Amino acid sequence: MKFAIVILNWNGEALLERYLPLVVQYSEIADIYVADNASTDGSVVFVKENFPEVNIIQNSSNGGFAKGYNDALKEVEADIFCLLNSDVEVTPDWLRSIEEAFINLPNAAIIQPKIRDLLRRDYFEYAGAAGGFLDQFGYPFCRGRIFQSIEKDEGQYDDTSEIFWATGACMFIKSEVFDDLNGFDEDYFAHQEEVDLCWRAQNKGLKVYYVGASHVYHLGGSTLSNMNPKKTFLNFRNSLYSITKNLPRRKAFLIIFVRLLLDGIAAIRFIFQLKPDHCFAILKAHLSYYRNFVKMYKKREKNNFVTKYYVTKSIVWSYFVDQIRNFNILVKD
Q1: CA 295 from chain center: how many Å?
Q2: Which pLDDT score, from 0 to 100, does residue 225 have?
Q3: Longest CA span, the chain
Q4: pTM over 0.90
Q5: Which residue ranges of the chain lie beneath pLDDT 50?
Q6: What is the rounded CA–CA span in Å between residue 231 and residue 237?
Q7: Measured between alpha carbons, how far is 115 from 92 in angstroms, rounded to an integer?
Q8: Domains of the chain by start residue, with CATH
Q9: Strand order in the sheet with 132-134
Q10: How many other C-beta atoms lie within 10 A of the C-beta of residue 102?
Q11: Potential cystine with 125: which of 176, 218, 321, 324 (Cβ 3.0-4.6 Å)?
């Protein structure tokens, strides 16, 4: 089983200097690539001079996360791709547990490890935590992270289990699956493209897993912080894209209508929090979605759409009304 670790980079020389040495040290079973998205800093020169064993792929433009990986992975030969953020600190034997999982779980198409916070190392990290899920209205959240509430890692998610989506911060995917899915949807540019990829995989009957025996530490926010208005725009718009593409038509239309109301409430909440930029970001997200609705609708594939894709009806209600902050309490409720 041949592994290839592919780190997408854009003007991230400082991150490569800090985190690439451990990737090289702890990844003996894998080939390592840095896929550069037309950086203008010294990233490529730094890698060439300091890590001659690392392969460099130079993309012609900065097409974001989605296009960047789509272009780069065409030049990589491996059985398993590991898509790894440049701000991830890997640990000894992080790959062994993943390799064993792919061997022992032949139906596994995509796997993610445990994602801890690099700055609060006993806590889960926002982008991925212990595996991703959706509520009925397409809002994503994770075991170990619901909205801005982050759980401390006390071994509660040390298992190996099925999840609905795996984080793009550290995602392992069979190369044949990535090719069969035609990679990421480049219209997303960044954020939630991994949710869409995993959803399309689920619609094809493929499985996504979390392996808690493997863990890494993620800095997070290196491109956009969790509360950046641009990230708010991309998350809200791209979530609507995924619903349109990946649910049965009648259900999708109903949920889009409900989302119009729920996202409106979220926008008003930002106003009361004195964050008008985020309110306008949600408005722009919906306008962008409606402009691109026909384009997204045409991308719907003729698969058997999964109808049990969520673990709770409304994460918004559970979090803000019922005050549930813990995933295990949520699923028991």
Answers
A1: 23
A2: 59
A3: 56
A4: yes
A5: none
A6: 10
A7: 14
A8: 3-218 (3.90.550.10), 229-301 (no CATH)
A9: 132-134, 140-142, 145-146, 149-150
A10: 19
A11: 218
